[in-house]
Amino acid sequence: MDDRKLQIGTLYALSHEYSDHAHKIAGSVSTEDEMRQYYTLISMSIKALQAIKEQFQLTAEQDVVVTVELSDLLIKETHNLDLAEMYLSSVRERLRETTLFHEKMLIEFFLFRVAKARDDSRYTREAIRNLTNLLEMLETTNSPWSDVFRFTYIQFCEREEKPGHVAAKYLEVLERTKVHKALHSFLLCRYVCFCLENWIEIRDDLLTELLAIENSEDLPIQLILWKQFVELLVLIFKDENITSKLSDFKTILSSHKKELLASHFELSVSPEIIITVESPILQYADVKNILLFLQSVSYLTNCYDKRTNFSTKFIPKVKKTTNELIKAPHSSSLSDQGSRCSFYERLLELCAFYESLEGLILHANCEEQSIPNKYKPLVDGMKYQLELDSQKALAKFSEISNFEKDPELELITLCNVFNIHLGTISAAGQNVSLDQYKIANDTWDRIQKIYQGYGFDQNHIWRCTITILWITSHFEPFTNVQLAKTDNEPYMDQLKWYYLGNRLSGGGSGDGNNEESNTVIDKSPPLKKSLLLHFLLNYLAGSMVVHDLQEKCQVSNTCFHMGKQQAMPLMRYLAGIWNLINCSLAMKGKDVAVTKAKLSSLVQKLLESGFTET
Fold it and tell me: How many other CB atoms are found less than 10 A from the CB of residue 576?
């Protein structure tokens, strides 16, 4: 064997040995000495590759292999981007007069990695221009590199351009990448996630295509699992039932548990081009943990129901498992370890946020936790609202605009603010200024702008919520406020429609027309079991669209009893008064006596807890 080749091979193997050992100890690095040991190993790995480049006359192909690995270490481990770019640019110049097309494209790909790592708007714009020119050049080659660089182009566009423009470019790229199944499926999952994150409507045909991606030998099981996660997110986003999707996960995990050992997977674009995708949610323990978390979030509104209070059961488990995963050793670079830990810490913060919401639902209070700054004003504002301190609540809600734009967070906040303003106006009676009316109307206009502009009107939970909010702000006895309304408002029809599919009574039609109601109820969607939402829906519909006295009694009695499952004593008191009126009209003497006794007990508890008689 040629001594030169032997020496090159020895140095190359040593470089791998040093970096592999560094990655093995990365998970246990906790002291300065251990950190120094880690970076000494990385430095030795880099020096071995530099020695190959400096001490030997390499072929162009060998130079590309060594330079790519050297640049990868410099980018990930040292962030010495100028040195990485110098090595890559030198090889690019060497390849200029050769016919080594694949090697040329590989160097271009790594140069774009350097630009991405710089995380600077100037370099991002330059990369977009260079990618545009490169893609034009590749247009006539029919090379699989075209699809790789289209993906790279999208990554840079996400940083610099408006979400709507990026979504349009995603659609162009998806249309062009269909020939490469794995990459196309991966990009489709990314596109759907991008749309969910940026509140962009997803085309039905693309959701259908997502559903059609099946488990096959052509796709890595990790990609199939990610596709399942994306579908689950879409269901949660729409507030739809996730039971069937959870069963799909169970089936896949039972069959592929042993394959979920690494935190990465490979996308094969061609025999020569394989893209490695890193993710902190691909190993079996991570998949199970994230699945429990998403299940908890989806069922959060059911936390009052002992049969389906999955958030109460699962969020503590998610926190425990996440802390264990943070401490568990992983063979990877320190930068990958840092990304992984950041992901876990974010997950713990979200657990704290959802536990706070759960506390507000169940106990009208919550413990101080490490809630993300973005959500803390919302939690504090709702807490003050439950304590009937409107001024402090409004002050907290006003802080939310200081954070990055989040349409749903804004919409939730505005709905709470709108209710506070309505309560203030109602309490003022005749002494209401025009400015107070203007504030309420302006707030409603802002609600409508976000509600319609970001597709919330396609979500039945939000449609029902806005319907309830409009009715309680326009009709007595729910309010004294005389806000403007037109004859063509759809809200009364929507109230009836949602009631027919979610009524608490055992029967009745609401208006006596059984044939019509049976037709409508088939189309009316069952809403998630948010107790307050169902309570208000049935209370309003029972008061306004139900005319049968027996059905009124059934609805009011059910509302009165369900009110004690959650921390909403005033709502329960309201339902009790309503039930007392209905039972009196129906001459149900026994029910009147029982309701009076329960109301008396409830009033006593309210007075003892600090409420005052007015």
Answer: 23
